[in-house]
Amino acid sequence: MCPTRTPTEQEKHGRRGRPITDRDANEINRVEELSYDLKVRDVMTAKLFTTTPQASLFDVLELLRLNRISGVPVIQDDELVGIISIEDIVRAMERNDLTELVGQYMTRALATVFNYDSIYKAMQTFAERKVGRLPVVDETNRLVGMITKGDITRGILTALQKDYKEEEVRRYRASHLFEDIISDRTTLVLRYNIKAHDFTHGGNASSNIKRALLRLGADPQIARRCGIAVYEAEMNLIIHTTHGGILKLEVEPHRITMSTTDDGPGISDVNQVLQPGYSTATEQVREMGFGAGMGLVNIKRCVDSMDIESTVGKGTKLIMRIHVPTENFNGRKDG
Amino acid sequence: MNLRDIIKLADGSLLTQGVNTNIQISGGYGADLMSDVLAASQSDAVLLTGLTNPQVVRTAQMAEFRAIIFVRGKQPQPETLRIAMQENIPLITSPFGMFELCGRLHKAGLPSFESNVSN
Question: Is residue A300 assigned to a domain?
């Protein structure tokens, strides 16, 4: 925003020069909204072809033909002095006058729009002045672009398409959860009941956890580390526990905590199970590709911190934490 | 190389219908020990294995493999196939043994995606 320019009508008065009520707000559709939100500079053509009053109409005709445009602004001493369009050239052709100079045939009384005007303002000007294109100037009256009705239609369609895409992504992503719900500390908790010896479904919970993390906007590398750690932990519940256990995922903007809790049999020597290669797995489990004594070692490598507490006859609790760098989970900055 | 090249080199049959065989495969990993796969693999590789249980697909999913090839002409269990279809992970069966198939793919230029586990 330029501090020196005058505020636009919308900024001064809101919609159509009067304050917007809730009822109005309900009636405004997205296209109407966009015609205020979108500025001329968002849709105008900034790549400019210009000519001078001293150029011949024949040259302009070539310029228009080669670039497939229907009119160009006329500049003299860095100032916009007129516009010359196909209609002006047709007038000249009727008089067999193509060797004449631009200055002779150009339109001088010019309507312009500011680059910070809304496209609604531009549409009004189009309707009032009955012209097909308008030069766009900045607050110092310097020519910065051209706008046509086609530019406006294209601009609105592009914006609508972008809106639609953003909404789709937003609906798919659940990451806005952390923005929409305000609290001092928001935690999303997912719980999964894991059955002992249910090898067929082994990994289903981990698969759902990984998918949830990705939908929540977690970095793919972090989701992969969580997936591997939680999968090993899930398989441990299936392989080793008496009655299965609970797998829990807690997501906070700055941290992901995964934990398993079971009620037995418990581990007699925790240090021993942390040794690579130590395993109590059965032959059946080994045939499935697990039980090589690498589970906890793997988990430890994937997470930032791992704590294991166990009492024989009571059960085991395993807690795994991964820190999320700020601006993960959809850019939310949180400590 | 893409999955189609790999299926050709493996003389393999695609078991999951409707998957995109144009996907790029960056490397290979051969193992029957899923913990090893989880511990030491990199993303976007193809997994060569003799195991056919559903855990193979879950492992591949967690470690982000692009496809699984069963060696020695093995066929996956029905649940394995079901999960693979659901998770969109291509399954292929190849008549070659593990050693020979690893050799063929490596010789054709597919790098090893097995990293060293330092412990």
Answer: yes
Does position A233 have pLDDT exceeding 70, yes or no?
Answer: yes
Whether residue A239 lies inside any domain: the answer is: yes
Q: Do A227 and A249 form a contact (C-beta atoms < 8 A)?
A: no
Does A265 lie in the same domain as A192? yes
Q: Whole domain around residue A241: which residue ranges? A: 177-331
Whether residue A1 lies inside any domain: the answer is no
Choose the final residue of a domain: A115, A131, A163.
Answer: A163
| Whether residues A318 and A269 fall in one domain | yes
Nearest alpha-carbon partner for A310 in A240, A212, A205, A207: A240
- The dotted CATH code for B3-17+24-107 is 3.40.1390.20
| Region class of B26: left (phi > 0), else alpha (psi between -120 and 50), else beta | alpha
**Does B55 contact A290 at a Cβ distance shorter than 8 Å?**
yes
pLDDT band, very low/low/confident/very high, at A78 (cuts 50, 70, 90): confident
Interchain proximity B59–A231, CB inside 8 Å: yes
B119 vs A201, A276, A289: nearest CB: A276
pLDDT for A23-56, tens place per residue?
666 666 777 788 888 899 999 988 888 999 999 9
A191 and A139 housed in the same domain: no
* DSSP state at residue A55: S
**Which value does ipTM take for this structure?**
0.88
Average pLDDT, chain A: 85
> Which residues in chain B have their CB less than 8 angstroms from residue A296's CB?
none
CA distance B106 to A218: 34
Instruction: Quote the CA–CA distance of A236 and B107 in Å, as a whole number.
Output: 37
Q: Which amino acid is at A37?
A: D
Preferred mutation among B58, B83, B98 to probe A, highest tally of A CBs within 10 A: B58
The 8-class DSSP code of residue B29 comes to E
CB B119 within 8 A of CB A297: yes
Does A147 share its domain with A216? no
Q: How far lies A250's CA from each of A230, A255, A310, in Å?
A: 12, 8, 21
Q: Token digits for A318? A: 């395993």
Which of A207, A296, A297 would you mutate first to test chain B, the one with the most B CBs within 10 A? Answer: A207
Residue A3, domain member (yes or no): no
The model's confidence at residue A18, banded by pLDDT at 50, 70 and 90, is low
Kindly write down the DSSP assignment for every residue of A199-225, as one continuous string: GGGTTHHHHHHHHHHHHTT--HHHHHH
SS in 3 state form for A8-29?
A: CHHHHHCHHHCCCCHHHHHHCC
Question: Same domain, yes or no, for A52 and A155?
Answer: yes
